[in-house]
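Item description
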Amino acid sequence: MMVLSRFSRPNGTEPSPNLYVANCGPTVGLSFDIIESVFGTFGEVRGVHPADESGARVIVSYSQLTSAQTAFEALNGFPCAPLGDRILHIRYSVFQHPPSEVDDSVSVSLGASELEIPGLYLLHDFISINEERELLAAVDNRSWKSLSKRRVQHYGYEFLYETRNVNTKQFLGELPSFAVPVLKKISLFSNVDGAENNILDQLTVNEYPPGVGLSPHIDTHSAFGGMIFSLSLAGSCVMEFRKYTHGVWLPLSATNSCMKGENSGHCSNFIRKAIFLPPRSMLLLSGEARYAWHHYITHHKVDIVGGRAIKRGSRRVSFTFRKVRMGPCCCEFPQDCDSQKERSIEISCEKISRDGNQSSN
C-alpha cells in the first residue's frame, strides 16, 4: 500500500522524534521491516513511512526524542552495515496535521479472488512478450488523439468523453487486424459463461505516462454491455475499486469526514479494495464488478505492493474491449444504472423481463 507520510521535509536542525532518511527505502532494496529493525536498536519505532513517491526516502518516527537523537548521531553520514553499507543522509522532520484530503491506506491484492468482488477476474500472462511487442508496435504506427494527460485511440466506435457514451450511428469500421489474436483468446476465456458468444465491437487504447491515473467511474451502463476486458501492456499499475451503498461517489474530503464521524447525516458507507495489474495481464469486469463498483487508478509514479516499491514504467498502454449496447440497460443494479433512472426505461425493462428476453449483456 502507498501512504505518503504526514511529515514535512527537513527545514533545519532542530531535533524531533521523526527522522527524514535519504538513500533508504524499497527502491534501493531495503524493506520497511528491515529499516524498522535497524532503527529499532536505538529505541521504540512508532512507524516507518514513505517520505515521497520515490521509494528511496523514508520517515522513521520514534516514540522518544532521545531515541531519534541517538540514531541521528550514530547513522547520519556513515555506512550502515545492516543496511548493505549504505551511507544514510538524515535530517529531522516535523509532523504536519493532515490536509482535508489525505488518502487512507488500502492493501493491494495480487489475485482477483482475494478481493471477493463478484464478476472480477484477472489472468496473468494473458499474452506473450512477443505478442505484447507486436501490439505496441501496431498502435505506435497509428495516429493518437491527445487528451489533457494521456493519448487515446478508438476503434469500432469512438468514446465521447463529454457524455461518457458512444454515438451508435457513427460506426468506424471493424476492429483492426492486430486485435484479432487478442479477441480469439478472449473467446476462450474460461472464467465466465458467455465469453465465447460476446462479440466485442469497440476498442479504446489508452497510453498513460508515468504518474498519470484514471478518474473514478463506472462505465456508462447504457453505453456498453456486461463484459469489459482490459489488457495491460508495457507498464504496471494498481487499480482501486469502491462500492457505495447508494451508488454515490463521495469526494475524499467527505469520505474522511465520515470516517471521523463528522456530518454523519451525509455519509455513505463504502468498501474499498485494490489489485495489482502487471504487464500482459487481462482484467475482466463483469456482473457486479462491472455495474456497481467504481474503478480508478491513482496518480502515483510508484506503487507499493507487499512492502515493495514498483515504479511505473515510461508508459502504460491499455487495450479495453467492450460491446456497444444498442438498447437500454436492464441490469440488476438500478441504483447505478443511467438507463433505469427514467421511468420509461423501467417499463421497457419490465416488459423485456416478462417476455423472457432479457440479456445479461
Observations:
- The two ends are 34 Å apart (CA to CA).
